[in-house]
Amino acid sequence: MTTLNNNWPEEFPFPTVIRTVVCCDLDETYIPSDNDKKALGGVNFLESYITSCAEEKGILAGWITGTNLDSAWRKSKGYISRSPHFICCSLGTEFYWVKNGRLVPSDTWEERIRRSGYSHQNVKSLISVLLEQGMPLEKQPEDYQGPYKISYYYPDGPRMASDFACIQALANEQRVRVIFTRCNPAAGDPPDCYDVEFIPLCCGKDQAVSFLREETALPKEAIIAFGDSANDFAMFAQSGRGYLVGNADPFAIKQYGSSLDGAYCHGILNVLKELQ
């Protein structure tokens, strides 16, 4: 179960006028999954730039990640020295503003979920039906579960297309959003598998970007998104610009067609330096 942790480092300076919203995936984008690579991640350079330029360039920066809040806290502790302005975790199902190092849940976001009619029990019942039908679903570790998110792995195989169609149909009946994405082994996922994730209809990485546009009253062109895998494509679609960092999953790069030269925060920083 995700717990609220209010001992985060001080966040970046909050701009008086927001002109650009920077949305970053966490694992293998903002933070390397492999501890041996963290020294090369470049987070200190990115933090220094945003800290010094947030006010001048109107930068609002945060994370939109599939991992849950407990996992984000554990992975970032001792690595980051400044917190982002916002954290949207558990695949865009929980939204927090960071104020004075404290996480403040967004009441507006919570109201969206309440109005959606999402029921954890409905999802569990849906999954029970799928397992009874022999679907090869394997529940993911707790780091990828959340109060509004239930995640499974599905191994690639000949039944995948028909099974996914069945899962989608049942999810539609229950008014639940289901997201299918090819896994990224570099982020700790098993090879040759897909994520199958059940969330409220109003949630997801793309919905998080739309929410930020509403909250800031900024156009799509003012949003820049960064990721490393195919599950970031929906976030890119709602942004003015979307970039895969240089270390992105090769499968995602092949699908998207390009990636940045710089890996991790180095790639993010190179783009932000171009802001006017």
Task: Summarize this entry quickly.
The protein is α/β, with parallel strands linked by helices and 276 residues long. 34% of the residues lie in helices and 20% in strands.
| SSE order, one letter for each helix or strand | EHEHEEEHHEEHEEHEHEHH
Low-confidence blocks of residues: none
* Major sheet size, sense and barrel closure: 7 strands, mixed
What distance lies between the first and last C-alpha atoms, to the nearest angstrom?
A: 42 Å
> What portion of residues is helical?
25-40%
Count of runs of 4 or more consecutive helical residues: 9
- Care to count the β-strands? 11
Radius of gyration: 18 Å
Overall residue-averaged pLDDT value: 95
Would you write up a description of this structure?
There is one protein chain. With 276 residues, the protein is of the alpha/beta class. Helix content is 34%, strand content 20%. Strands 5-4-3-2-1-10-11 form a 7-stranded mixed β-sheet. Strand 4 and strand 5 form a beta hairpin. Helix 1 runs parallel beside helix 9. The longest helix is centred in the first third of the chain and has 15 residues. The chain is globular and about 55 Å long. The chain starts with 19 loop residues before the first strand and ends with a helix. The model has no long low-confidence stretch (mean pLDDT 95).
